[in-house]
Amino acid sequence: MDLLGSLALGLGVALTLQNLLYCFLGALLGTLVGVIPGLGVLAAISMLFPLTFHLEPTTALIMLAGIWYGTTYGGSTASILLNLPGTPANAVTCLDGYPMAKQGRGGIALFMTTVASFFGASFGIILLTLFTPVIAEYALRFGSAEYFALMLMGLVASSTISEGSAIKGLAAVTMGIIIGLVGMDTQTATIRFTFGNLGLLEGISLIALAMGIFGVAEIIMSIRRVHAADIDPESVKLKAIVPTRDDVGRSWFPMLRGASIGSFFGTLPGTGPSIAAFISYAIEKRVSKSPERFGNGAIEGIMGPESANNAADQTAFIPTLSLGVPGSATMALMLGVLMIHGVAPGPNLISDEPELFWGLIMSFWVGNIILLLLNIPLIGVWVRMLTIPYHLLYPAVLMFICLGAFTSGFSALNIWMVAGFGALGYAMRIFRFPGAPLLLGFVLGPLMEEHFRRAMVLARGDFAVFFERPISAVIMAITGLVLIWGVWSSEHLRAKRGARALEREAARRAAHHPEQEAPDGQN
Amino acid sequence: MKKIMAALAVALGLATPLAAQDWPSGTVTIVVPYSPSGNTDIFARHMAPYLEEKWGQSVVIENRPGGGSMVGTALVSQAEPDGLTLLMTTSAYVTAPAIQPDLPFDPRTDLEPVANVGYVSYILVTQGDSKFNTLEEFVEDSKQNPKFAATAGLGTTTHFAIERFIAQSGANFDVVHFKGGGPAVVAILSGEADIYGSSVSSAGGNIASGKIKVLAVLGNERIAALPDVPSTKELGYPETEIHQWVGVFAPGGTDADIVAKINADINEVLRNEEFIATVTPLDWTLEQSTPEGFAAEIDQELTGWKELAESQGISR
After folding, report:
1. SS3 assignment, position A481
2. Do both B160 and B209 map to the same domain?
3. What backbone torsions phi and psi does residue A191 show, to the nearest 5 degrees?
4. By the CB < 8 Å criterion, does A202 face chain B?
5. Domain interval for residue B249
6. Are residues B283 and B141 part of one domain?
7. pLDDT by residue (tens digit) across B49-100?
8. Measured between alpha carbons, how far is B290 from B260 in angstroms, rounded to an integer?
9. pTM of the predicted structure, to 2 decimals
10. Which residue of B has its CA nearest to A141?
């Protein structure tokens, strides 16, 4: 099928009434979740995951994807108005967005970030459309050794590149893999770690794990951190939504650079939109002729990152859809949706399920246009959302988590698992262990085991196979470098941070001034 | 909630006589213990709309691959015996227990045989651009350059089929297990494995498009779907015939009236002209069965395959 025919097919699927409706719902929920600080995309997707069982797989993916890229649109609102990032991917937008709001240019900042988001997303979708089929074609050369190497790289990258300690990230991945071992082994149906409990025969529920680690833990965490915000009415006056000629002129190149950076980092396992946004900001500051404006409301400082994080959101689908290898925890959940619906992710997905693949891609256009409409005229509504008291919002969310966990298998065991994982997730937050690598390890662990065992049979038990086959060897080498660099830089950073914290502590004591707790990303 | 309702119904003494009449009271899930796009999965997905129309309830196909079909089979053996969770599996049901002694269920008692829907033959396939054009060349070459033979999982019928062929032909194949016929065919397409004893429907359009080459039919006769392909008996391997049947099972303890009703409804679909026309090109030979007859066959086959595995030394 030629590209135009495929696109037409996809558009036909994306524009059916049902898909349109769920695309709208996804974008709406995404914006909502994005606007509210503290409620992350992973928590939202894991909560809505059971709902998708009753939908066609294409519709289910369209909705979940809408939430995924919708949060990044919505996330900038809280960053700009409250100086609190709606999602980790929007954290850098605080740096220049909030100063803009304080200068009474909040309306312009909100308008322009929406434009940047749309630009970045469009860029990402075009790359996704062009490259996914090519990569899938190439993927038939991937054998078990290559898949194993690729998954190992994904796990190492996601645990070492994410913020915080690389060693804690690796520990979380390992814990995820261990939790994934529970149940029947995929090669010989040998029962492992069920301790005689028949309910554990099919393994730990992905839904319970995701909801516990991300949903419950996040809510418990927020009890002592967030409080309904007071918004300075001056900053949200939307009278001045139209940017000046100077604003527009300064925005083009940052958007373009941001979109390229975002597209690149989106495809890499373990990086994703947050890192893309940070790198884009750093680059804009470096190439700027007047770097001193950054941090004081420079429009380049919001356009680059907002374009980058949305582009990354879209290109994250490339490895997931072409190889069946998810690069992030959210993509792992998307893969879970496919598997639950009996769609085999992998290089044959595009040829076997053209409606699903092209329908999903075209729905991204639909969803982004919906988001453009949702975010510009309705911005006042989202601003008001920021004032819902958390003591009403969070108990309601908790109730939906329990409902979702129970109905996913009509099993009370699932609710206990949610509670258990909630406690684990909370403990992980306190000790600053990242949750996303754990989920990724849980999903990829069993797949890795399968490919590893098969690669061993095919190599007649020779471990060198991973280093002798060229593709696998290259991936293994990159994995090694990422591991060394990740551990080194995080330890280095920690030492530096420790020194800085000591200085600050000294300064604080001298000034007798209590320090404000910094907002913290939840991904 | 369902459990509470069921308990209430039992307490009121309504459960037994009404069970078969009320069935199905909700969505019927048919577990297929293989990855999507394998032979069993394709058959189940063809059959589901007919059953949906007959029962007036959704019929959902759920893939639960792993452990050479034993993961999904074990799950159904633990399910509520209300007839709303069924299993559609292959003759792996009787072959796998022969070499997997510590399964978490007893195939004779923990599942109720409902209906045997029919069988397919196996074809030996390799890459479309393989330098080998006949089975003899392939087998001969393997004696110098050992080949990898894919299976749909440990202890599946495809595993037994290839082991029997190896024993008969003296070929030098190493067996590699995949999670169902779909992934095994991908392994042939990517060149990861060299030969696979596939069903016609698993190989699918790849035969017509030339991406997969068929070397022989594992059996005594040629098959109608591929009239030009020689049978292994013609080629001088007389004892290699093997069929893969597909059957429907319910969890042990399911009401006998419900089992009889499902059996009757499935048999009706198998007589439907339109349905027959869809599956015939996929090399299906459909059957009419009774639960009792199917149970007797299974009992006999469980014993037979165990003896074969022991006598030929097939093990994990």
Report:
1. helix
2. yes
3. -85, 130
4. yes
5. 26-119+243-312
6. no
7. 899 999 998 888 888 877 778 888 988 998 999 999 999 999 989 998 888 8
8. 8
9. 0.74
10. B190
